[in-house]
C-alpha cells in the first residue's frame, strides 16, 4: 500500500472510512496538470488515459506542456506521463 494525497474532486465511488480512517475510491483522472511548478493551487487540468500530447522535460524533473487554447504551460510529475 502507498500513502498519497489527491484532491477529493479526482475521486469517485468513495467508501466510508474504516476504523483506521482509510477509504477506497476510484481515480477519475489519469494525468493531472498544474499551471505552477509547485504542483499545488492554481489552475489544474486532467487528461484521460491515451490522450496524445507533446510534453517536454523541465529543469526541475517535471514534464511540461504548452496548451495553446489556455495560452500557458502546465506541469505534471513523471509518473503521470509515459
From TrEMBL:
<dbReference type="Pfam" id="PF18341">
    <property type="entry name" value="PSA_CBD"/>
</dbReference>
<feature type="domain" description="PSA endolysin cell wall binding">
    <location>
        <begin position="22"/>
        <end position="81"/>
    </location>
</feature>
<dbReference type="InterPro" id="IPR041341">
    <property type="entry name" value="PSA_CBD"/>
</dbReference>
<protein>
    <recommendedName>
        <fullName>PSA endolysin cell wall binding domain-containing protein</fullName>
    </recommendedName>
</protein>
